[in-house]
UniProtKB/TrEMBL annotation:
Organism: Thermocatellispora tengchongensis
Sections of the chain in a coiled coil: none
InterPro entries with a match to the protein in the record: Rossmann-like_a/b/a_fold (IPR014729), Universal_stress_UspA (IPR006015), UspA (IPR006016)
Protein family: Belongs to the universal stress protein A family.
Protein name: Nucleotide-binding universal stress UspA family protein
Domain of life of the native organism: Bacteria
Gene3D superfamilies named among the record's database cross-references: HUPs
Location of the UspA domain: 4-139, 149-282
Length: 283
């Protein structure tokens, strides 16, 4: 049996979407589900707030959030083995701590806090930036099934774990896999004297993509693969593909990325702009 799937809930609509996504994935993976709700007390422990009474209210609210979440799982996926946990800690570190033995961590794109215009909440950004397991960030309002998983690939080794996760997800869902390799000309190539042979460049990029997924084609013969090689910015290409995908999978970094930053520019851009669920898989 695989490790557990961990989902963070805070009672918000995006966290409900994350919960449903996690329950469905637990059934597909035959994995147990851990529903975690973190209660942060410190914002309430300032002198202006009365102590005992409000803390009890906080505990009651947490218990209600967790009970509601467990009820959602029981009614949506009665066969999934689910446990709930309330921890007294800030949510991001609490989720990170549970990630060790998990097969994946699932969170909503937003939560109850944050500012209204934000595309991503701080917990989701933090978890996606730190956890060494696949992190799935789920958006609410997407019940439709498209039958396609999208994987963003580049010419670096860094995308291997993302590709492996994407193929596994496609196989579990009986979905197809669209491997998107978006390449761009260096800016100086637009200078007429540079003399690039565009056909040659295009052919070379197609070969990069084909080589990268050849082994997975053999391992997952049941998954229909589309090699989608485009001259475009990867964030644009992946965001566009996300409109018709059940899941978009990216690595945390690509070629040329700074190892010191938590997320590469493509994964960050896709997390912010994708229309549906995004999995970030760290190498
Ligand atoms: N207290 C919490 N306990 C567990 N998970 C949480 C908690 N707060 C947020 N999360 C998870 O993180 C997701 C994003 O929320 P968050 O980053 O806090 O957004 P916002 O900044 O909009 O509140 C939520 O949908 C939920 O999955
Ligand atoms: Mg929040």
């Amino acid at each position: 049996m695989p490790g557990e799937i961990v989902v963070g809930v805070d009672g918000s609509a995006p966290s409900r979407a994350a919960l449903e996504w996690a329950a469905d994935d637990a059934l597909r993976m035959h994995a147990p589900l851990l529903v975690l709700h973190a209660v942060e007390r410190w914002p309430y422990q300032i002198a202006k707030f009365p102590s005992e009474g409000s803390i009890d209210a906080l505990t009651r609210a947490a218990q209600r959030i967790l009970a509601d979440a467990l009820a959602v799982v029981h009614s949506r996926q009665p066969d999934v083995e689910v446990t709930g946990e309330i921890v007294e800690a800030p949510p991001a570190p609490a989720l990170r701590e549970r990630a060790g033995g998990a097969v994946e961590i699932v969170v909503g794109s937003r939560g109850l806090g944050g500012f209204s215009g934000a595309l991503l909440g701080s917990v989701s950004v933090h978890v996606a930036g730190h956890v060494h397991r696949p992190v799935v960030v789920v958006r609410p309002g997407r019940e439709r099934v498209f039958g396609e998983v999208v994987a963003g690939i580049d010419d670096s080794e860094e995308c291997e774990p993302a590709l492996a996760y994407a193929f596994e997800q496609a196989a579990l869902r009986g979905a197809g896999l669209r491997a998107i390799y978006a390449w761009q000309l260096p800016v100086h190539a637009y200078a007429p004297e540079a003399g690039y042979d565009l056909d040659e460049i295009r052919a070379a990029h197609h070969k990069v993509a084909a080589d990268r997924i050849a082994a997975y084609r053999d391992r997952y013969p049941q998954v229909d693969v589309v090699e989608d090689v485009r001259c475009a910015h990867p964030v644009d290409a992946l965001t566009q593909a996300s409109e018709r995908a059940d899941l978009v999978v990216v690595g945390s970094h690509g070629r040329g990325g700074l190892g010191s930053v938590l997320l590469g520019s493509v994964s960050r851009g896709v997390l912010h702009h994708a229309h549906g669920a995004v999995a970030v898989v760290r190498a």
